[in-house]
Amino acid sequence: MDLPFLVFVAAAAAVWSIQAVMNRLARPPAAWFDAFRQANIELSATPGPGRHLEGTRDPLRVSVARESSGGTWTTVVRILGPFDQLSATSRFQYGAEVRPVLTGDPEVDRSVLLYGDERVIRALCDPATRRALRSVIDMGVKIENSQVVWHCTWDLELKRRLAQLVDFSERLVPPRDLAQRIADNIVHESLASVRALNVATLVKHFEPWATRSAVLAALNDLSEKVRLEAAIALGEEGHRCLLVIALSQVAEQADVLRAIAQLGDGFTPRHARWALRRAMSSQRLTTVKVCLEQLVRADDARSVSAVRAALSSERDAVALAASRALKDGATTQFEGTLIEALTHRLVDVQRDAVVTLGRVGTVESVAPLVDWVAHHALDRFVRADAPRAIAAIQSRLPGASPGQLSIAGAEAGQVSLAAEDQRGAVSLEEPGSG
Which helix (H) or strand (E) element contains residue 349? Predict the structure, then answer.
């Protein structure tokens, strides 16, 4: 056998070996086929050329391919389906500038950004889907442009994870009846925050006839938040539930305030007195302020007594809240309470009382104001409030006559009674003026 023939044979064998290797590298790895079988994905009739594999699992289309990005080759899984109304990614990839739809589940909302149609998100995000969502997002999965996309590093990982990813993708197919799915989710949801958002979504986005039974059922929910959403939606039918929440000592203060606001005139002065006592005992200052404002507007004897009790509270914050409420809305009915406040332990309450008496006081307030000045003779800034208050009282009288007030305008700070008869005049002069 001559040498040229041997060289030819060796060259042919080398070419055949190289071609075999190239063909093997061009075909999808066996692990991909194993992953498709385990995930029950039906392969396309003819696998695509190169390292690319496609298949279907109705209604999903699954493709796996080797792709280069920045000089690095990775295996990219794309699952196409009817996901156009939903997108999701890790919160740490996009940042806080994206406005997500919150699920109400703190574990999900802290780590995942969901955006899209709120109705679809509420319908899909039952407890099992939320758990699966967190798991796939931790894998680096993104949901965008109607695709679930995953960049996989190792073929063995693809074999282990593809079935999980396809099962998750099936969960993202929206149901035909969104309202019914959301209502079903409410029944089986353990987190009150999620149930409340689901009820709010039903009320906001669907016709009442489609959601009435679910909203009525929510009136008996264990959570005040859920009951509040349902009661607001039901209007008059939810009045009693709103009142229970407004008077609750265990409901969150924000829910109590919202219930009070929704009740409007249905939250009567009697209710405000009850709520005030409970809020004072539990130190819910914002509720205290809201109740005091209503009681000051009510202007009846029992409301006056309740405001007086708050003003006398040992808690400075409660006393100051009552003082501010009186300053903003008191009427003559509160004159006695304001006169008593001139001797309050808190100077701020005293000054508020002086100013308020200037707005609503009568001649009966003058002597207490004069006494108040006497006790503050060394504080010219505090002392100046009383002459202004007395002047304001005088300005409301029909005219100066004996026994009434007048301002002695000749010298600053002088205020006198019985202007026509200076005998018995009461004057207030600035220290050092005479």
Answer: helix 347-360
* Helical ranges in 219-334 per DSSP H: 224-234, 239-246, 253-263, 269-281, 285-298, 301-311, 316-329
The CA–CA distances, whole Å, from 2 to 9, 15, 16, 73, 155 equal 11, 21, 22, 46, 48
Three-state secondary-structure class, residue 211: helix
**Mean pLDDT, residues 340-363 taken together:** 92
**The residue to which tokens 């093997």 are assigned:** 24
Cα separation of 259 and 26, whole Å?
A: 67
How far is it, in rounded angstroms, from Cα 3 to Cα 425?
143
Q: Is residue 59 reached through a cis peptide bond, with omega within 30 degrees of 0 on the bond before it?
A: yes
Q: How many CB atoms lie within 10 A of CB 33?
A: 18
DSSP 114: E
pLDDT per residue over 112-135, tens digit each? 999 999 999 999 999 999 999 999
| Cβ-defined contacts of 96-104 (< 8 Å, 24+) | 102/197, 103/130, 103/194, 103/197, 104/191, 104/193, 104/194, 104/195, 104/196, 104/197, 104/198
Which tokens belong to 136?
């796939």
Radius of gyration of the CA atoms of the chain, in A: 39
DSSP string, 320-331: HHHHHHHHHH--
In this prediction, what percent of the chain has a pLDDT beyond 70? Answer: 81
CA–CA separation, 178 and 128 (whole Å): 17
pTM for the complete prediction?
0.75
pLDDT in the model for residue 432:
44
> What is the rounded CA–CA span in Å between residue 368 and residue 50?
99
- Residue carrying structure tokens 């080797």: 66
CA distance linking residue 83 with residue 101, whole number of Å: 16
To the nearest whole number, what is the mean pLDDT of the chain? Answer: 84
Q: Give how far Cα 393 sits from Cα of 27, 36, 354, 358, 403, Å.
A: 98, 90, 11, 6, 14
Nearest Cα to Cα of residue 237 among 257, 249, 220, 223: 220
Confidence category of residue 153, pLDDT binned at 50, 70, 90? confident
pLDDT at 24: 45
**Distance (Å, rounded) from C-alpha 414 to C-alpha 400?**
16
Given a cut of 50, whether residue 417 has pLDDT beyond it is no
**Residue 102, SS3 per DSSP:** coil
Residue type at 75 in one-letter notation: T
